[in-house]
Specification:
The chain is mainly β. The chain has a single domain (18-151), classed as Electron Transport, Fmn-binding Protein, Chain A (Pnp Oxidase, Chain A, Roll), CATH 2.30.110.10. The protein is 14% helix and 43% strand. The protein contains three helices and twelve strands. It has helices spanning 6-13, 60-66, 79-85, and strands at residues 18-19, 21-27, 30-36, 39-43, 48-51, 68-73, 98-100, 106-108, 113-125, 128-140, 149-151, 154-156. A seven-stranded antiparallel sheet has the order 3-2-6-9-10-5-4. It has a three-stranded antiparallel sheet with strand order 1-11-12, with no helix packed on it. A two-stranded antiparallel sheet has the order 7-8. β7 and β8 form a beta hairpin. The mean pLDDT is 97. Bound molecules: flavin mononucleotide. The site of flavin mononucleotide (FMN) has 18 residues, from β3. The site of flavin mononucleotide has 18 residues, from β3.
Length: 162
């Protein structure tokens, strides 16, 4: 029996700051997407990234079925986009401008960068899965913008770079 609980797990993990991305996809002409922090660069050769969708996500199964998804890196003025994309069961794209990337997955207006992928593999693990994407296209869209950061359950921006 451990001497820590799920709250300790959450708060300890919350000490690790991340950016925020929106994983998007397109299934049968309908855009889908959700907010995530569990994004990481995995391999340069071949070019791979990883994302961890929760098993309760209603959008990930759509991206999985399409076999493609795009990672959109949010800027620090895009918290409202994050708020919409963290909701479930609503029309998330009604008020968000986007264009289709090479895979057809949405690239959201105003993002810092995008990484457009084909689904390479998926590993079942705990209450999330590890989805590995093979990068087919990527670009920096706006290099002068700062990223949206997530730390201790709150959002922020870089105050200064060291
Ligand atoms: C900052 C932030 C980070 C998140 N990170 C993840 C994540 O890494 N993986 C995940 O599955 N959900 C993550 N979520 C939660 C999803 O965005 C949320 O469950 C959403 O409702 C899923 O929508 P869906 O049902 O359309 O998939 C995060 C939410 C926020 C606000």
């Amino acid at each position: 029996m451990s001497d820590w609980d799920s709250r300790t797990f959450r708060t300890t993990m919350g000490q690790f700051s991340t950016g925020v991305v929106i994983a998007t996809g397109m299934l049968r002409g309908e855009p889908a997407g959700f907010a995530a922090q569990s994004f990481v660069s995995l391999s340069l050769d071949p070019p791979l990234i990883a994302l961890c969708p929760g098993k309760t996500s209603s959008s990930w199964p759509k991206l999985r079925e399409s076999g493609k998804f795009c990672i959109n890196v949010l800027a620090d003025d895009q918290k409202p986009v994050c708020d919409i994309m963290a909701k479930t069961g609503i029309d998330k794209f009604a008020s968000i401008a986007w264009r289709a990337g090479k895979t057809g997955s949405p690239i959201l207006e105003g993002v810092i960068a995008f990484i457009d992928c084909e689904l390479e593999a998926e590993h079942e693990t705990g209450d999330h899965t590890i989805a590995i994407g093979r990068v087919v296209d990527l670009a920096i869209v706006q290099s002068d913008k700062a990223p949206l950061l997530f730390f201790q359950g709150r959002y922020g921006s870089f105050a200064n770079l060291v």
